[in-house]
Design goal:
Elements: H1 3-27, H2 33-56, H3 62-79, H4 81-89, H5 99-102, H6 111-126, H7 131-156, H8 161-169, H9 172-177, H10 183-203, H11 208-225, H12 227-246, H13 252-278, H14 286-307, H15 321-326, H16 328-337, H17 347-381, H18 383-403, H19 406-412, H20 417-448
Helix pairs in contact: 1-2, 1-7, 2-7, 3-4, 3-6, 6-7, 7-8, 7-10, 8-20, 10-11, 10-12, 11-12, 12-13, 12-18, 16-18, 17-18, 17-20, 18-20
Length: 455
C-alpha cells in the first residue's frame, strides 16, 4: 500500500456507500433494509484487512502479485490506449506492439490468473491504479453477487432474513477471504449471480433477459477462473430446477409417476453438462482428472510441510478416478470440519479451526433436533435443501482432495460455506414448522374430544 491509498480509497468508499445508501430501497424490503449497509460495510472492511494482513503478516502474496502485474496493463492503457486494449483482449498471445509490456507479466500465459489481472487493471482505470481501491471494487462485485443470492433465499423464506444474512455475509472466513483482490472474491460474487439467475429464470421463469445475462456472465467468469466450481454447481443446480418444476405438477398421481423420470433426466443432463464443460481441458477432463489430482496433491503437501507445517494428508492416490472416490469421506471431512484445534500451526489457522468447530456443532445439532432421519428426509424432499447439500458435498470433495494445505483450503471452501449453513438453517426451519403443525393439530383434536362421556 502507498500514500495514495490513504487519499483515493476513502473517497472511493465514500462514493460506494453514498450510492448504496441512496439506492438501497430498490434492492431491499422492510426486513432486509437493515442488513444492506452493515453487510456492504463488512465486505469493504474485509477487502482492506486482507491487504493489511498480506502486507504486514505475509510480507506479500498473491493479492499484491495480481496488483503489480495489473499495473503493467494499466501502464499500457496510460501510455498507449490501443496497446492497453490489445493486452486486455489478449489470451496470452505475444504481439510486437505489446511485447514490451507482456514480458513483465509473469502470469501472462496463465489464463486464470491473467483474467484476474485484467479485471484489476480495468478497476485501476477508475481508481488511479490504487491497490486498496481496486480491492474495494472487487469486494463490491462480490457483495452484489451475495446480495443477489440473499434476495433469492429470502424471497422463498422471508422470515429467515436474519439467519440467512449470517450465512452469506457475516461468516468470518467468507467476508475476509472473499473480499480482497483475489480469485476467490470474483468466483464468490459470480456464484451468487449464477444461483440468482437459475432461480429467477429457470424456476420462477421471470425476467428472462436479466436472468440469461446473469447466468451467461457469471458462468463465463467462473469458467475462466475456477471451472471446478461449475462442475460442483451444475449437477445439483440442474437437478434442483427439475425437482422444483416437477413439484408444480398439480395432478399428484402424475407428479408421483413423473418424479423418478425427472430425477433420472436431471442427473443425466447435469452429468452431460459437466462433461461438456471440461471436454479438452487438461486439468479437468474426466480421463485425466485422477492423474492431475495425484500430482497436485503430492506437490502441495510437500511444499506446505516444508514452509509452515500446515499441510494435511488423506492417503496415497494412484492416479485413477476410483482412488479419488475412495478418498471422498476424508476429503469432505477435512473441508467441513478441519482443521481441528490441535492441528493449529499459526494464528490465522486458529481462526479457521474455531470456525470449523462452530460448523461441527451446527452439523451435530441435526442429529439431536430435528434428528438425523428427519434431516435426511428433508434433504431428499425439499429441492432447495437438496441443492444446498449436494453442492456442498461435491465442492467439499473437490477442494478437500486438491488443497492438501489448510491455508489454501480456507480460501477454497468459502464458496460452499454460505450454502452449507443455509441448508442447515432450512432443515431446522422446516422441522420446526412440522413440529408447530403437529402441536396445533394435537390441540385442535383435544378441543374436539368430548369432555364428559358419561350418560
Amino acid at each position: 500500500m502507498e500514500l495514495k491509498d490513504l487519499v483515493v480509497t476513502p473517497l472511493v468508499i465514500l462514493f460506494i456507500l453514498s450510492v448504496a445508501y441512496l439506492s438501497r430501497e430498490r434492492f431491499t424490503n422492510e426486513r432486509t433494509k437493515a442488513i444492506f449497509m452493515p453487510a456492504l460495510l463488512l465486505k469493504l472492511f474485509g477487502a482492506i484487512m486482507l491487504g493489511v494482513i498480506y502486507q504486514f503478516y505475509y510480507s506479500g502474496g498473491d493479492t499484491y502479485n495480481y496488483f503489480e502485474q495489473s499495473s503493467v496493463v494499466f501502464q499500457a492503457f496510460y501510455e498507449s490506449p490501443p496497446d492497453g486494449i490489445k493486452l486486455f483482449l489478449s489470451n496470452g498471445e505475444f504481439h510486437p506492439e505489446t511485447f514490451k509490456y507482456a514480458q513483465h507479466i509473469y502470469w501472462y500465459k496463465s489464463p486464470t490468473e491473467y483474467f484476474v489481472i485484467k479485471m484489476a487493471a480495468f478497476f485501476g482505470i477508475f481508481t488511479f491504479n490504487t491497490y486498496s481501491s481496486v480491492a474495494v471494487l472487487f469486494a463490491l462485485f462480490s457483495f452484489t453477487g451475495l446480495w443477489a443470492a440473499y434476495t433469492t433465499f429470502t424471497k422463498q423464506f422471508p422470515t429467515l432474513y436474519k439467519p440467512i444474512a449470517w450465512a452469506l455475509f457475516f461468516l468470518p472466513s467468507v467476508f475476509f477471504w472473499g473480499s480482497g483482490l483475489m480469485k476467490d472474491t470474483v468466483t464468490l460474487g459470480a456464484l451468487g449471480w449464477l444461483f440468482y439467475g437459475f432461480y429467477q429464470g429457470l424456476i420462477e421463469k421471470k425476467k428472462p433477459i436479466a436472468s440469461a445475462i446473469a447466468i451467461l456472465v457469471s458462468f463465463y467468469f467462473i469458467y475462466q477462473i475456477k471451472i471446478y466450481i461449475l462442475l460442483s454447481f451444475l449437477p445439483p443446480a440442474i437437478l434442483w430446477v427439475f425437482l422444483e418444476n416437477s413439484n408444480r405438477v398439480k395432478n399428484r398421481l402424475a407428479a408421483l409417476l413423473l418424479k423418478p423420470l425427472i430425477l433420472i433426466l436431471g442427473i443425466g443432463f447435469a452429468f452431460l453438462a459437466a462433461v461438456n464443460v471440461t471436454e479438452g481441458d487438461i486439468k479437468y477432463d474426466i480421463d485425466r482428472l485422477g492423474e492431475r489430482t495425484k500430482i497436485n496433491a503430492e506437490y502441495l503437501y510437500r511444499t506446505s510441510q516444508l514452509q509452515d507445517g500446515s499441510g494435511y494428508y488423506l492417503g496415497e492416490l494412484d492416479g485413477s478416478f476410483q482412488s479419488m472416490l475412495r478418498k471422498a469421506p476424508q476429503a469432505i471431512n477435512v473441508t467441513l470440519f478441519r482443521p481441528y484445534l490441535w492441528e493449529v500451526a499459526n494464528p490465522l489457522m486458529l481462526l479457521s479451526a474455531l470456525e470449523s468447530l462452530v460448523f461441527t456443532i451446527f452439523f451435530l445439532s441435526l442429529f439431536f433436533k430435528p434428528g438425523i432421519f428427519k434431516s435426511i428426509y428433508l434433504i431428499i424432499n425439499k429441492p432447495i435443501i437438496s441443492f444446498c447439500f449436494l453442492f456442498t458435498v461435491i465442492l467439499a470433495f473437490a477442494v478437500g482432495l486438491n488443497s492438501y494445505n489448510f491455508g489454501t483450503l480456507v480460501r477454497y471452501k468459502i464458496q460452499l460455506l454460505p450454502f452449507y449453513l443455509t441448508g442447515i438453517i432450512l432443515i431446522k426451519y422446516y422441522a420446526n414448522q412440522e413440529t408447530v403443525r403437529a402441536a396445533s393439530t394435537s390441540r385442535w383434536l383435544k378441543s374436539q374430544w368430548p369432555k364428559d362421556l358419561s350418560w
